[in-house]
Amino acid sequence: MYEFSITLPYTQVEEAAQRLYEAGIYNLYYEAPIEVKVTQNGYAFETDTQQQVELKVYGDEDPEQYLSILLALLSIRREEIIYRMVETQEWNQVFEDIELKNGWVIRYAGSNKEYKPETTLHLDPQGAFGTGIHGTTQACLEVILERDFTKKRVLDLGTGSGILSIAALLKGAQEVIAVDLEPVEREILHHANLNGVKQIQIVQADLIDGSYRVQDWFDWIFINIGGDEAKIIIDRHELLEKSNHFLVSGLVEWHTEHVTALFQNAGFSLQKRLQSDEWVTMYFSK
Questions:
Q1: 0.70 exceeded by pTM
Q2: ∠ CA 204-18-25 to the nearest 5 degrees?
Q3: Is-contact 18 59, C-beta < 8 A?
Q4: Percent of the chain at pLDDT above 90?
Q5: Disulfide-capable partner of 156 in 44, 105, 122, 222 (CB 3.0 to 4.6 Å)?
Q6: β-strands 34-39, 81-85: how paired?
Q7: How many CB atoms lie within 10 A of CB 67?
């Protein structure tokens, strides 16, 4: 297997990835230039859009032939691509499969392990978020995968790679609307295809300052964003009137009181609280 590395401005990398995806090239990865800052709300993630990022593409074909394909698709010069041979095991070990507490497994692309199909969630992370490694993601999956979502409508806010949406669909959800500020459609549709699910609508929208509004009733609403952001979004979209079941995550232990009070004052009860390190996930219902 060969690894091809292309350095691009961050503002161009998603468009490049989309071109590759449309051409049937799915084994790619890049890390967004994100700076993490500790705040009262937990952690702030700032993306430096002026940075260059390294897009890595993997392929088994003859390297010269693959180079020709990449050059044509990305409209770049030959000297802008660096490639090397990598052992298949090296590629496979980027992510280790994760066995969740409820019997389910997150199986990553390239894994040679086999599990029960009915309890396997397939994941091929291609960006900085939604890899399944973070404790908040695993806590949310624990809540989702132990429940029956048959005929349920789900709203997934801050969807990232779509892993929570995919989990709800695997548990029988009738429809999922997945919303994110970033252009995540390509990655989510890739994951939907890997898991054989289709009933997902993807919306790119700014939930805090944009014109998009949540209008409908949902059986479940997932909010995996952060404490202050969650409260702003809940108030702005009047979400407490649009569902009886909320899964709220991305919270830090020192900043959960106002979220708990918000739900309890609206007549919701805390059904489950999970914590991994400083990160807290809570399930409220009414």
A1: yes
A2: 140
A3: no
A4: 49
A5: 222
A6: unpaired
A7: 17
Task: Report the distance separating Cα 261 and Cα 284, nearest Å.
Answer: 11
Output helix, strand, coil percentages for the chain, rounded to the nearest 5.
30, 30, 35
Closest CA to 248 of 274, 267, 266: 274
Amino acid identity of residue 124, one-letter, is: D
3-state secondary structure of 8: strand
**Residue partners of 251: CB distance under 8 A and separation at least 6:** 42, 226, 227, 230, 259, 279, 280, 281, 282
Nearest to 242 by CA among 216, 279, 267, 276: 216
Element housing 139 (H / E): helix 135-145
> Which run of H or E residues covers position 10?
helix 10-22
Query: Quick one: 79 exposed, middle or buried, by C-beta within 10 A (0-12, 13-18, 19+)?
Result: exposed
Are the C-beta atoms of 218 and 154 separated by less than 8 Å?
A: yes
The predicted-structure confidence for 85-126, as pLDDT tens digits, reads as follows 876 555 444 678 999 988 999 998 878 899 999 999 999 876
Report the SS3 class of residue 25. Answer: coil
From CA 132, how far away is CA 154, in angstroms rounded? 20
Note the Cα 105 to chain centre separation in Å: 16
Give the pair of three-digit tokens for residue 190. 């890739």
**Tens-place pLDDT, residues 142-184:** 999 999 999 999 999 999 889 999 999 999 999 999 999 888 8
Tokens representing 24 are 């049937």
Q: Dump the DSSP string for 80-142.
A: GEEEEE--HHHHHTTS--EE-TTS-EEEETT------GGGEEEE---SSS--S-SHHHHHHHH
Q: What is the rounded (10 degree) CA torsion for 191, 196, 200, 203?
A: 20
List Cβ neighbours of 198 (8 Å cut-off, separation of 6 or more): 192
What is the Cα–Cα distance from 119 to 145, expressed in whole angstroms? 9
Tokens of 9: 């401005």
